[in-house]
Amino acid sequence: MSRRPVFPVLLALMAGLVxxxxxxxxxxxxxxxxxxxxxxxxxxxxxxxEMIHLYxxxxxxxxxxFPTPSPPFSEGIFxxxxxxxxxxxxxxxxxxxxxxxxxxxxxxxGQRWCLDCHNPNDRDKxxxxxxxxxxFTESYRLCGQCHGDxxxxxKVGIHGKRTGYWNGDKQYLLCPSxxxxxxxxxxxxxPMPPPVRPDAAR
Amino acid sequence: xSDQKIQHDNAFKLTRRxxxxxxxxxxxxxxxxxSTASASVWEAFFQKNFREMSKEDLKNVLARLEKxxxxxxxxxxxxxxxxxxxxxxxxxGLDLSRCIGCRRCxxxxxxxxxxxxxxxxxxxxxxxxxxxxxxDLTEAEHYYNPKxxxxxxxxxxxxxxxxxxxxxxTKVCPVQATWxxxxxxxxxxxxxxxxCRYCMAACPYGARHFNWSKPQVPAKEINPDTHYLGNRxxxxxxxxxxxxxxxxxxxxxxxxxxxxxxxxxxxxxxxNMLDPESEIRYLIENKRVFILKxxxxxxxxxxxxx
Lengths: 202, 306
Known about the structure:
Low-confidence stretches of chain B: none
Distance between the termini of chain A: 85 Å
Structural class of chain A: alpha+beta
Number of helices of chain A: 7
Mean pLDDT of chain A: 81
Number of helices of chain B: 10
Number of strands of chain B: 12
Low-confidence stretches of chain A: none
Largest interface: A-B, 31 and 47 residues
Oligomer: heterodimer
């Protein structure tokens, strides 16, 4: 019985691995792979310089904006600065006792509180984790920080509801139009009446 | 000469041929509505199949229908024959993980498409499924009525016409009163339908409905924006079905179907399957879609997904 020469092959493989991995900060072109919408693999060659450019937050392409209706504020609540402008921001994590007591946080409440999303110094803005301030009309960017899969679907019109025309102008609903941001689970609805049973119709 | 003999001589000689001729003429005359005879009745009687009508024919037919409906419901009712848009094939998506079974779509459809309130006709049926049993339609509950939906441990599945690319219903029609349009919508010519209900037997989705009596729609609830092949008021004894709201979707720009527009959870998606940028194309390419009763090779253009 002849045995295959396993050992030399292994050696050659290891040598190959070392040459591949072991060269630090390769300036060689790097392949960036992604799938396009039809499911085809697209491979792009990027130089190291281009890759550095790609990873820099400053060079990230600006967030897309979408036509959305005005946010569903409670009456008389916005602009927040009407009350908050003269108030000293209190950054201490606490239970609110005088105002906004109707808001019960039921949204990973153990891990966050008001000022994780609301901006302490300018209350009319929301605050991303990166520190960037955004308008309330762009709240989908805030939600999309955690719910990336939903954000991705929403951008292409799969998650959430679109109104308007199937081959014309569409309106996107904002996340808070359907989900209370402080208690986001969709609330149960009363169903419309069931159909008449055929035997009852007789 | 006996009385009997005289009677025999004067008697009308009825041959078989004469008898059959007479019978045919007699029955023919009976069938014509003499008492209510007007030009429109004659026109309706001799109206051609929708696909064989000339432009002139069509104009007259629409004028006659609009006049009749407007008189019946006491307000102007428009009947359109908007043709299909080129390069469009409609597709529908339904997100089963979103649907909560609230039946808003059922009643939006009834209102938009002038379905009979009594006897009740509903083009969309929502069934409740047991999550433990999966998508098993033999266990489906049609008449669920709890205080609020969704109920714990249940999922919901709306079923309507699947607008098959290979529709069994149009093949069995003995008079070709139903067919698939170039944009993929399966339609019925209510004036040509003879009410044999073969198509209902052929449809594996229970999506076709028969008008057992004159459809009753309150005049104040009637939708006056109608299409000849879609939501115009139907006569007694014809079959009707979902048309993806042909009166809305064929316009430029085209509105979404009424069921899509009402859905409170955004579970319903609609668009042009030939447009690579459309929502429906995205979900077919990227989501886990399935079609109902795939094994029958009806090739529905209605995609359920999770």
